[in-house]
Amino acid sequence: MKPYDLIVIGGGPAGLAAAISAREAGVKEILILERDNEPGGILNQCIHNGFGLHTFGEELTGPEYAIRFIEQAKALQIPCKLNTMVLDLQDDGSGVKQVTAMNRQDGLLELTARCIILAMGCRERPRGALNIPGFRPAGVYTAGTAQRLVNMEGRMPGKEIVILGSGDIGLIMARRLTLEGAKVKAVAELMPYSGGLARNIVQCLEDYQIPLLLSHTVTDLHGKDRVTGVTLSQVDANSRPIPGTEQEISCDTLLLSCGLLPENELSDKLGVSLSPVTGGPEVNESLETNVPGVFACGNVLHVHDLVDYVSEEAARAGLHAAQYLKEKKRDSRDFSLPICPKDGIRYTVPQTVRPDCMDDTLLVRFRVGAVYSDCRIFVSLGDTCIQTLYKKKIAPGEMQQLTLKKADLAAASPSDSIIIRLEENVHGNA
Amino acid sequence: MYDVIIIGAGVTGCAIARELSRYQLRVLVLEKEEDVCCGTSKANSAIIHAGHDATPGTQKAKFNVLGNAMMDELSQELDFPFVRNGSLVVCFEEAQIPKLEELMERGRQNGVEGLRIVRGEQIQKLEPNLSDSVTALLFCPTGGIVCPFLMTIALAENAAVNGTQFRFDTKVTQIRPTDNPQEGWQIFTDAGEVLTTRCVVNAAGVYADVFNNMVSARKLSITPRRGEYQLLDKKAGALISHTIFQLPGPKGKGILVTPTVHGNLMVGPTAQDLTDKEAVNTTAAGLAEVMEKGRQSVPSLPGRMTITSFAGLRASEAEKDFVLGEAPDAPGFFNCAGIDSPGLSAAPAIGVYLAKQVAQTLRAEKKTDFCGTRKGIPNVAQATLQERKALIQQDPAYGNVICRCETVTEGEIINAIRRPCGARSLDGVKRRVRAGMGRCQSGFCAPKVMEILQRERDIDPLAVTKHGPGSELLTGTTREDREDETV
Amino acid sequence: METRNLICINCPLGCSLTVVTDDAGNVTVSGNTCQKGADYGRKEVTNPTRIVTSTVRVHHGRLPVVSVKTSSDIPKGKIRAVMDAIRSLSVSAPVAVGDILLPDAAGTGANVIATKNVEKLASEIQGSYDT
């Protein structure tokens, strides 16, 4: 069987946008493989509004945002196999990748592709990974699972709820469950600040008088069969529970909104090297992984805060895949500069830049490790500062970006690296 | 009127049931939980011990070695995963080496084969990720690992296929001799029933003392000894290949680090004596201890790869040995009590031993149509491409992946629900086919498995449970189901 | 005179706003960094509004519920009333994005509109008949 030009793993916002842009750039044989029963991914259960301001200039709900891309993919006649689980990805070095997938209709699918875009998204951190002690009753859900149950299946996971973690999904679910008649008793957050947007704190918690307990965590879970309550404790600066601060809250449900983890088991099988910080593939300026012809975008690459950025990034991945297929960017000098995050910068995507392969400008996304105010971000090539950026306030929850200029990297030699670092209180008025 | 009622569907209860199903007897297993394998059998180290630990001459020593020797054949007959991966007992000081030698000598007396002490460079060759401070170890090639769920389930299924009845969600509240003691026993249940039986087998785990003490003057006292564990991602599974014990202490074999038959890594258990027989909760202190002590053996143990933690209660009898056989002052009442470690290893041999005793008492004849083999649920994740194709051709549901972390298909889940003693809850499905056992811990598949359970069992969506009555997963619907419209 | 302390939601700065309404009804906002903050503070005190999103029961659809939103923001005080109206609503598949499922919800002037397509469920058993 003839190999596909491009197989996109995942039909969520990233996969759809990547496939669309690849098609628009002239790629013919594209196939999207989606494990759920409809394309759109997690957007389908995000029925709240707030999506699309950057992309469409209007505020859409998740399903509406998804439909715009689904319609576009349909119009471009990009085939998408639904209910299809990709089981294995292999690259034997010949340039053609093997994709093993499975579904009810086709049975076992053994496909090949010249190019692959990884767009599998992420999963939620479960209770076990949080090491919450106590019993193992029914009534412990990740916020996303609860969101699916409520918004897509019309089921209520509980009546009296405590939420651990103040990420946006947790905040959104606090409001959603309240509107459906549940009592959300508290949202506990381990950190001294919330990871969610201010807008969600106001409109999801304050509007409904739901208390947000910062620097708190769940230190015990009660109830053998169904949750009957949780013990919340205050934590110190090192996130350790402070003895004597325990308070027991009765509830029948504990929702967890404690972070998202890029889902890279397939990338691993393919030999893609992963960043220990992002949990996603390490990519170059073309969003290409260390395996040639394998690109990554969306939450499988790094967890995004806004879907608009996912779409933008995925479109770039699609474009680069198209260029790869046309063999336009196979390049002569081909040296690669690492981008090194330092002093408060947690990570950057991409992690490396080949100056010869980049366009005139390159968008670099990054996150910081803590809340900083009055800070300046310095970008330097070796010892030379090539760019600075001032931020009045910067928080880990919000993804940041800066634009690298090709012209600024003209003097780069293969031994150079690009350093991005942060200085706080640059005006000394903390 | 039953010939035998077995109280408790844990691994020993099910092993006895399976062996008794060879005889022409009416056998009923009563279980207070909703499934087999819900007590001590589901939360332990999943180890088939070599048998060097128990004091020579004890029941523990005898049945451990016997049980271990049965495992290869039994796991083949009943199609459950068992691997003889070998175990290591490590010590960290030269001064402890005599203790290792003592352990080896004890093993020899118990009939354990192939034991040897390994020192120096050979240690790292055997297990490269062991701590540098390990000075010597006892290598026990016959040690193994098993899936305790699938072992128990296999035993139960095979018993059921051979005519044994199982009744779940049924708690025994009282046991009394019948008016004519020659006739046997009356068993009272929480459903208000009174069942009569010629013999009783008390395999009630941490509650076995309660039932024994209802009928016998020779009192038993079982202390629930809690053990907490952490289970690590399969990505950490290849860190070690053997089961690694530290030199045993008075309360048990210490914290071990072991691969599981499914490729995960497991660390535990702690040992804490309690009074509450239901206290299967983990504690912050316990979980911290598990990791700390595990790292003494394997320093690179990646605590961040923990996917779940759990606790089990060992049924530790005051005399520190298994109590097996007919109570001296209660004819027809057979104890299978005090089954703490190495209970899982000993279970197959205990099953044979007690079944024989019961059958002799009842003068039972063997069946001619006993079927001693059982085929497990197809495992799509481990099947070859050809096998997968064949399975999907046979039933397309084997092409529909429900649990993405462990690659579990709808076909496997349906199979798990429909077979004898089948799964009735989310945990029941999990124990049989591993849906929800992976790194996302059922975040993605729980709603789908709930839907399959509801459909297959034809129950209300709100009646689907995590592990039986009281553990209902949903509390309501957001919109009333009003069928006031027609097509 | 009434004073309210708010957090501005327009950007990650999250300015702490102090909004004072004097007895004559004049509103002054302080603590803001930009005009958007002043506007937000004034609106939150005089006429706070929200978009409401929820689901509506669907009969004979591919899904049991369809996601919906109010076509425009509604007064914050009307959220409960709009939710009650949404809760008592049910529709038959097919439903398409943008379909008005309830006009003028709870007298707010906003319509409840579908935000997703829910196709009709193909009848489960294809009828067979004797020839």
Spell out the blueprint of helices and strands.
The complex is a heterotrimer of chains A (430), B (487) and C (131).
Chain A: E1 4-9, H1 13-24, E2 30-33, E3 49-51, H2 53-56, E4 60-61, H3 62-75, E5 80-81, E6 85-91, E7 97-103, E8 107-118, E9 122-124, H4 127-130, E10 140-142, H5 143-153, E11 155-156, E12 160-164, H6 168-179, E13 183-189, H7 198-205, E14 212-214, E15 216-222, E16 229-234, E17 247-250, E18 253-256, E19 260-262, H8 265-269, E20 294-296, H9 307-325, E21 337-341, E22 345-349, E23 352-353, E24 361-368, E25 372-381, E26 384-394, E27 400-405, E28 418-423
Parallel strand pairs in A: 1-2, 1-8, 2-5, 8-20, 10-18, 12-13, 12-18, 13-14, 21-28
Antiparallel strand pairs in A: 3-4, 6-7, 7-8, 9-19, 15-16, 16-17, 21-23, 22-24, 24-27, 25-26, 25-28
Helix pairs in contact in A: 1-3, 1-9, 5-6, 6-7
Chain B: E1 2-7, H1 11-20, E2 27-30, E3 47-48, H2 59-78, E4 82-83, E5 87-91, H3 97-110, E6 116-119, H4 121-126, E7 136-140, E8 144-146, H5 148-161, E9 165-167, E10 172-177, E11 185-189, E12 194-202, H6 208-215, E13 222-232, E14 243-246, E15 256-259, E16 265-268, E17 272-273, H7 284-297, E18 306-317, E19 323-326, E20 333-337, H8 343-362, H9 385-394, E21 401-403, E22 408-409, H10 410-418, H11 426-433, H12 446-457, E23 476-477
Parallel strand pairs in B: 1-2, 1-12, 2-9, 5-14, 12-20
Antiparallel strand pairs in B: 3-8, 4-8, 5-7, 6-7, 10-11, 11-12, 13-16, 13-17, 13-18, 15-16, 19-20, 21-22
Helix pairs in contact in B: 1-5, 1-8, 2-8, 10-11, 10-12
Chain C: E1 2-7, E2 16-21, E3 27-30, H1 35-46, E4 49-50, E5 53-59, E6 65-70, E7 74-75, H2 79-87, E8 90-92, E9 100-102, E10 112-114
Parallel strand pairs in C: 5-8
Antiparallel strand pairs in C: 1-2, 2-3, 4-7, 5-6, 6-10, 9-10
What keyword list fits this structure?
heterotrimer; A: 430 residues; alpha/beta; FAD/NAD(P)-binding domain; 3 domains; seven-stranded mixed sheet; 28 strands; 21% helix; C: 131 residues; alpha+beta; N-terminal domain of TfIIb; CPE0013-like fold; three-stranded antiparallel sheet
